[in-house]
Amino acid sequence: MKYLTVDFGSTYTKLTAIDSELKEVIATSSSFTTIETNVLDGFNAAMDKLNKAVGGKFDYDEMLCCSSAAGGLKMVALGLVPELTSKAARMAASSAGAKVVKTYAFEISNKEQQEIYDICPDLVLLCGGTDGGNKEVIIANAKKLCTIDRNFAVIVAGNKNAADEIDELFKNSDKDYVITDNVMPNFNELNIGPAKEQIKDLFIRKIIEAKGLTTAQKMTKYKIIPTPLAVMNGCELYSKGTKNIPGHGDLMAIDIGGATTDVYSMATGEPTMEATMVKGLPEPYSKRTVEGDLGMRYSLRHVLDAIDITQVEKETGVSEDKIRSWVEHCTANPETIADKGSENELIEEGLGKATVSLAVQRHCGTISSVYSPMGQFYSLTGKDLMNTPFVIGIGGVIINSNNPDKILSGAKYDLNHAESAKPKNPRYFIDARYIFAAMGLLSSINPDLALTILNKEIKQI
């Protein structure tokens, strides 16, 4: 069997040719994603390169695809309280590959209603209340969503006692909607699986057409899924293994894209220090966070706003003016790749490291000191990843760098942000041919082959 995997990325369309008999990747190629015209233009250009790489036409038996073209699946999540259902909603959305651009708690105001209109999301995840608990808030929010004149789909995953009334509300609107199981049926009990499946299904029904991927879907019998979900599936496979091949245990993976930076952790995240109390919702073993304001092309201006540019200037030895000039150039020309050994490559590495540092800081849990009559102890909110043994780098800025370890060092524990439970002594690995998404796709039909190839491809720096 020969497989072709296709990742219609926000910046590049990436192809991977796989031979099951050789149990290896025989070639990869990429071309700029032509989202403004037709995504198949970029696919065909990448296919021409792939054919040249294999020395003739690559005749594949099966094709599997994922996509984050045009920034992927843009989602807004509504819940009852930020520490509970809003966070559960974010977990469900992120694990399914969506980019959560905003979450709201309690009953949304008129101003927030207008904000959702301005965001113009692809999907809205409506949560709120445990089963049998508060239902007034989710019903009020459903009414306000019905009046927003935007063509978004709604997934309702809240208090089941409000389902009938919400069903009537949306029946009388022009909204595409579905009602599924509560993301938090009982206090502090997560149930994100059903909502996650509905997000994937709506991606296929609605977003594929919106992003111009309908023709691509007809070329394969397998459903196109969000790229971050494919990467997460690859990370889970590498961590947990299969029935026949052992996995590698706890890990963190960082995927820096043109529009977003995704961080994945495969770990329980339990406290590493004694006398630590865990607060908040239980964390999933497989976790993804997506930073919609941190990307190396479309979001590069936002990176500059979020980081300390003087630190980048100090580490790279390049002036602030040149750094800002490079950012403007890359934003206007997202297909740009820095020349090897150039000053611009130093800027890319500096900005990449800062992006990794901030994204991982947001992903990891936080630890704080608490004093009581019994003495000092600690409080952990989120995942403690300080003992995570290795970090895997994914994405163009890492792959194209002469010093990927320098970029990934941003993931390491930093005394300047001592409260963040980042890895203390990780080893750095790299996905040099960007195959995590490809192997995540392949794992759905041949997990042993996918893991065998990952074991060959993922190398320590």
From TrEMBL:
It comes from the Bacteria. InterPro entries: MutL. NCBIfam families: accessory_GlmL, glmL_fam. This is DNA mismatch repair protein MutL. It comes from Porphyromonas macacae.
